[in-house]
């Protein structure tokens, strides 16, 4: 694991965007795994600016998002599909058919999970996976538990996650209680992983995921066994790192 500590959110976002752009420069048809939440917003903003300056070309890139709320249609304002369009896809030259997210309103969720997993494999797997981290150490929506899903699955969200994500909704009762999330093996199979964390509220999760121990109670701790992981944090999120 390589750990990079940046001074603040702005420099973390800048570094993250440069790492993603370098990946695309080296492999223009990269398959990117993408994350939502507040943390990658600065990275997306910088990448849009780089695209406008002709510094990066997304025309051959394929993307797969980590997760989607179950029960929300793709055009729901709080769906991750809307988030990705508003904050990234609509502002760059990526062909829409190359952008993938699980369908939150799929009629048959089992088929949807299988199909999503299958599409990732048919594209050759993920070259570069961007991850955030939940305060409870979740990655994607793989929540702390006695066991974790290997592949894409329907998952129940923990109350801590529902509470943390309620800031995007009018109230916490509007936050869906389930989501479709890619599994731990799907993430671990990515050739490179970049995990971003900013702010003091992530410091404990970052300390736990780098403790030298692996536990399903802190799903991100499994990443310690990945052979090409960059942990990019700001000083606040990294303040408990040993
Ligand atoms: C959600 C997403 C995760 C994300 C996490 C942290 O739960 N499913 O992929 O990493 O939030 O979000 P934030 O960056 O807003 O703290």
Automatic annotation (TrEMBL):
It comes from the Bacteria. Pathway: Amino-sugar metabolism; N-acetylneuraminate degradation; D-fructose 6-phosphate from N-acetylneuraminate: step 5/5. SUPFAM superfamilies: NagB/RpiA/CoA transferase-like. GO terms for cellular component: cytoplasm. Keywords: Carbohydrate metabolism, Hydrolase. Its EC number is 3.5.99.6. It catalyses: alpha-D-glucosamine 6-phosphate + H2O = beta-D-fructose 6-phosphate + NH4(+). One of its GO terms (molecular function) is identical protein binding. The active site is at residues 67, 136, 138, 143. Catalyzes the reversible isomerization-deamination of glucosamine 6-phosphate (GlcN6P) to form fructose 6-phosphate (Fru6P) and ammonium ion. This is Glucosamine-6-phosphate deaminase. It comes from Proteinivorax tanatarense.
């Amino acid at each position: 694991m390589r750990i990079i500590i940046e001074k603040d959110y702005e420099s973390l976002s800048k570094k993250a965007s440069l790492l993603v752009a370098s990946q695309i420069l080296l492999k223009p048809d990269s398959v990117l795994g993408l994350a939502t939440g507040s943390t990658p917003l600065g990275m997306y903003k910088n990448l849009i600016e780089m695209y406008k300056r002709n510094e990066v070309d997304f025309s051959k890139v394929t993307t797969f998002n980590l997760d989607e709320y179950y029960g929300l249609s793709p055009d729901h304002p709080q769906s991750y599909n809307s988030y990705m369009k508003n904050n990234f896809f609509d502002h760059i030259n990526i062909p829409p058919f190359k952008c993938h997210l699980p369908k939150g309103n799929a009629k048959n969720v089992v088929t949807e999970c299988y199909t999503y997993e299958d599409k990732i494999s048919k594209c050759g797997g993920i070259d570069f996976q961007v991850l955030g981290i939940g305060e409870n150490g979740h990655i994607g929506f793989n929540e702390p538990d006695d066991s974790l899903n290997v592949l894409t699955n329907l998952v129940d969200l923990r109350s801590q996650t529902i509470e943390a994500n309620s800031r995007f909704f009018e109230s916490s009762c509007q936050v869906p209680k389930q989501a479709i999330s890619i599994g731990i093996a799907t993430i671990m199979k990515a050739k490179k992983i970049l995990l971003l964390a900013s702010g003091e509220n992530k410091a404990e999760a970052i300390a736990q995921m780098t403790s030298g121990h692996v536990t399903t109670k802190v799903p991100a701790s499994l990443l310690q066994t990945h052979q090409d992981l960059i942990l990019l944090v700001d000083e606040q999120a990294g303040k408990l790192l040993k």
